[in-house]
Structure formats: structure tokens, C-alpha cells
Amino acid sequence: MNVVPSLGSLCDVTGIRVGHHQRVSSAWRTGTTVVLLPPGTRGGVSVRGAAPGTRETDLLGPDTLVPHVDAICLTGGSAFGLDAVAGVMKFLAEQSRGFKVGDRHNWVVPIVPAAVIFDLGRSGHFDNRPDADFGARACRKARPRFDVGAVGAGTGARAGGLQGGVGTASTITADGYTVAALAVVNSVGSPIDPDTGLPWHIGRWTAPSLSSTRLRRLRDLLVSAPGSSLNTTIGLVATDAPLNKAQCGKMADVAHDGLARAIRPAHSMNDGDCVFAVATGTSPTTFPASTNPSTDLPIGAVNRLLTAAADVFAESCTGAILTATSIGGPPAYQDFARKQSRPGGGPGTLH
Fold first, then answer.
1. Beta bridge partners of 326
2. Which residues, listed in sequence order, are joined to residue 327 by a DSSP beta bridge?
3. Does domain 10-341 have CATH number 3.40.50.2300?
4. Is the pTM of this model over 0.85?
């Protein structure tokens, strides 16, 4: 199996690990993705879709007690899939990771914000959806390298009539900070321009080539795709910069700009679009104390982080579509643009 062309990975932010667990069969097509974070990571969130399914998002507000986040859980199963978080919490609690609520080392409550996509019934079996075991298994599989495409939370995803999936990208700002993203694309809107057959947002990806015959087939699919299904694009952006909770919230806000570049329309009444943002503060890059009391970083450096967050989230959304392969549901973009295909039909692996 060939390696998928890579624009970097969420795990380029030091200390982050990603794990997937999914079931794919005649009765199952769903999964869970867990992002394990280093100690001291701060978080924020922005929800723009009208039909979100989330957990523990309120505590990411800048005026709340809990200062740090232990993991992010992204999962299929709609609101039922939030059961996967219980497995993530159990895994972390066994390592005494979490918000301390007593004097004993294991008296902790793991902080695991979560968001879901709607993929119920896409295997034909409505009751088959992620549970606590999915979350625990995804944690045990977490590594600095992970698969992309139709895996984890993106297993049952679809986007504008195509197979959806998981995508990722990273970059380094002029100030030396790493900014990375992971997106699970399961959108009502299309990531593909029907006029050209190309992704709305190419960014640093290589533009695929389509024959005139395949372009016509793709256009027919995009035009006939239902526009009122229940969907959602979820994900997160991460940086090693020392952002506070309020700045993380702003980064999550701006990452939605990237989502809207890559998927049209975005943030519909049928989407539950939700983006988390986390800051590990592990970068060795430092600045002199800022004269602006609202931030520890110069405003210009913060703005460059925000710009990068939108860019890598957009590229992650595009990457989810370019790397996905069909797994028994809708066709994949690769079925039309063979330039991006790989022998074996499996998910790609980021190295």
C-alpha cells in the first residue's frame, strides 16, 4: 500500500497522540477517534452548526474552573455515540490523569470534551453505534502516527454524496510555532466544486486529474446527492504555543473559516459543525513580555497562529476527501480521480 501524500499531522504538535477504533462489516460502519493530550493542555471550542452533539463544551469557557483538557473524543453514533467518552475517561483515570478532586493520587475526573457526527443507520443497522469500548480501544491504539481517510470517527462519514473521512495537516508559523488540525468530514455541503470536479480548497494539496467521463459521472453524483440529510463536520486545531483558554476559543472560531473554505455550504441547519482548539504550550519559542495585558504573546504572533489554524483546518477537510476510500457505502472521490488512489483500497498512513 502506498503512503498517502502528507501535509503533516496533528501529532506534529509534540506530545499529542491519536487513536482510532472502528467496525466495518455488513452490519457496522462507524467508529471513534481519540486525541490524547499532554498534561497542562488548555482548550477552547466553537460550535457553528445548528444541530450539534457535544459533551463538556461549557467547561472550556475562559470563566470556568477547570484549567486543562486531558483528551478530545470525536465519534460517530450521533448523541448515542457520546457513550464512547466513558471508555476514554476510564482509560485516563487508570493513569490518574484528570482534574484532582481529592488528596489521593487517583481521585481525579478526566476532562474529555467530545463531539459527534451523525452516521446512524448507514450500515443498515440503526442500533450499531460506538460505546465505551470504542473509546477505550481508541485510547489504547493512540500513537504519534495514525491512519487517515475512512477510519475512526470518519468511518461512516459522507460528504456531499461522497465517502467522508478523517484528514489532517500541519504548518509552522513565522514565529516558530507548530499549528496542526484534524477534521472529520461528514457534511451536508460538498467539498467538491461541481463545475471543475476539484476540491473547493486545494491549498498545498496536488490537484487531482479527472477524465471528461469521470468528471461527468462525478457531477451527476454531486447534483443528485441529498441536501437535507443529518450530518456534521467536527475536529480540532492544536498548537504548541502558550495560549490561554480565551485565545484557544478564538482559534477554534477562526478554524471555522477554514471549514467554510473547504465545504460549501457550511454551518447549515442540518450540520452540527464543532471545532475544538488546544494549546500545549510545549514550544521552546519565547517572546519578551507583551505590553498588552490580555495576552502573553505579541498580537502579531497570535494573528499568525489564527491564520495558520484556518489554513490547516481547510487542508484537513480536503485531505479527508482525497484520502478516503469507499468501504461499502457511497463512492469515494478516488473512484473518480484515480491519481489519488492506492493499491489495496485501505486507509492511508501518515508517517
1. none
2. none
3. no
4. yes
